[in-house]
Amino acid sequence: MCIRDSVCMKKVLFVAGSGGHIAQLAIILQEIGDKYDSKLMLEKSDKLGIERFSRKYKIFTAIPIRGKNESIVITLIRILVNLFQSSIILLRSNPEYIITTGPGLGIPVCIFGKIAGKKIIVIESWSRTKTKSYAGKVLYPFSDLFLVQWPQMLKHYPKAKYLGRLA
């Protein structure tokens, strides 16, 4: 999206799940303000998050790839649906960067984005102080920048950057 004086804003797709993931996204969005052409990908069931951000941002929704206490068959169906939704969201948002605060929701769109030549930035959850998250394990090799919020996590992700906690 170009603005006055032909200065173009970077197009960014932010991906966050519910709970702590969206709380971390809120901190990031508050910090960056209107510096980027930002769009959000949120969990379809996160009505509060959607309502919170829909006045200011274009929102795309998708189902998470894992539900609680579901059979493997239901999880596989969720994964297939999310793969389809993620590909459509990637095409419609056409970002230069994908930034995720770490939910499984972001795995397919980040992998598709990497294949499409997008820059991938992963922020490991602030709740991960000693162990890797599932999304972190999967996305670490694909990320262009991987950020951890605790210095002890650098032993798990040696190429990561520690910049402190989002707060």
SSE map:
Blueprint: E1 2-3, E2 7-8, E3 11-16, H1 20-32, E4 37-43, H2 47-53, E5 58-62, H3 72-93, E6 97-100, H4 106-115, E7 119-123, H5 134-139, E8 145-148, E9 161-162
Parallel strand pairs: 3-4, 3-6, 4-5, 6-7, 7-8, 8-9
Antiparallel strand pairs: 1-2
In a few lines, what is going on in this structure?
The chain has helices at residues 20-32, 47-53, 72-93, 106-115, 134-139; strands at residues 2-3, 7-8, 11-16, 37-43, 58-62, 97-100, 119-123, 145-148, 161-162. It is an alpha/beta fold and 167 residues long.
Overall mean pLDDT stands at: 88
- What order do the SSEs take from the amino end to the carboxyl end, as H and E? EEEHEHEHEHEHEE
Q: What proportion of the residues is helical, as a percent range?
A: 25-40%
Number of helices: 5
Total number of strands: 9
Task: Give the N-terminus to C-terminus distance in angstroms.
Answer: 29 Å
Strand content: 15-25%
Sum up the overall morphology in one term.
Answer: globular
Biggest sheet record: 7 strands, parallel
Q: Please give the order of strands in the largest beta sheet.
A: 5-4-3-6-7-8-9
- Uncertain segments of ≥5 residues (pLDDT<50)? none
Structural class label: alpha/beta
Radius of gyration: 16 Å
